[in-house]
Write a structure and sequence with these properties.
By secondary structure, the chain is an alpha/beta fold. The chain has one domain. It contains 4 helices and 3 strands. The protein has a 3-stranded parallel sheet. Helix 1 runs parallel beside helix 3 and helix 2 runs parallel beside helix 4. The longest helix has 16 residues. The two termini are about 20 Å apart. One of its GO terms (molecular function) is alpha-L-arabinofuranosidase activity.
Length: about 140
C-alpha cells in the first residue's frame, strides 16, 4: 500500500485468534517491520462447532464458566505482547483486539446467518471485564 497526499496509512496485519501464539510469532518474525498493528480476536465462546448456548437461558454454572473464560483474555493479551516485544522492543507495533465478546446461538425465529442474539447482564459483565483488561494494556493495545 502507498501513502498519498501527505497521509500515512496505518497498516494492520491480520492477526491470530486467541491462543494461536505461533501466528503472532510468525508474523512478527517475518513481516513485523512492515506493519503498524496486528489484530487479535478473542471470543468468550464454548466452541466453534455445535451449540454455543443460549444468550438468555443459562444457569449458574454457565454464568461462572463465562466469567472465567472472559478473564482468560488477560493472559492471552499478555502472551501475544511478550511475543511482539521480542521483535519490537520499542513497542511501535500495536496489538489491536478488533473482535471480542460473547458469542451465543442465534435467537430462534430470526434470520439465519445474521447472528442476532440478545444481551443480558452476563454480556455486560464480560464487556466490562474485557474493557478493564484493554485499559490495563493501553501502551500496546489500541
Amino acid at each position: 500500500c502507498r501513502n498519498y497526499d501527505g497521509n500515512r496509512l496505518f497498516k494492520i496485519a491480520s492477526g491470530a485468534s486467541d491462543y494461536d501464539y505461533n501466528w503472532t510469532e510468525t508474523l512478527m518474525k517475518n513481516v513485523g517491520g512492515r506493519m503498524d498493528g496486528i489484530s487479535l480476536h478473542y471470543y468468550t465462546v464454548t466452541g466453534w462447532s455445535g451449540s454455543k448456548g443460549s444468550a438468555t437461558d443459562f444457569n449458574k454454572d454457565d454464568y461462572y464458566w463465562t466469567m472465567g473464560k472472559c478473564l482468560e483474555i488477560e493472559d492471552v493479551v499478555r502472551k501475544h505482547i511478550q511475543i511482539m516485544d521480542k521483535y519490537d522492543p520499542q513497542k511501535k507495533i500495536a496489538l489491536m483486539v478488533d473482535e471480542w465478546g460473547t458469542w451465543w446461538d442465534e435467537e430462534p425465529g430470526t434470520i439465519n446467518g445474521h447472528l442476532y442474539q440478545q444481551n443480558t447482564m452476563r454480556d455486560a459483565f464480560v464487556a466490562a471485564l474485557t474493557l478493564n483488561v484493554f485499559h490495563k494494556y493501553t501502551i500496546v493495545s489500541k
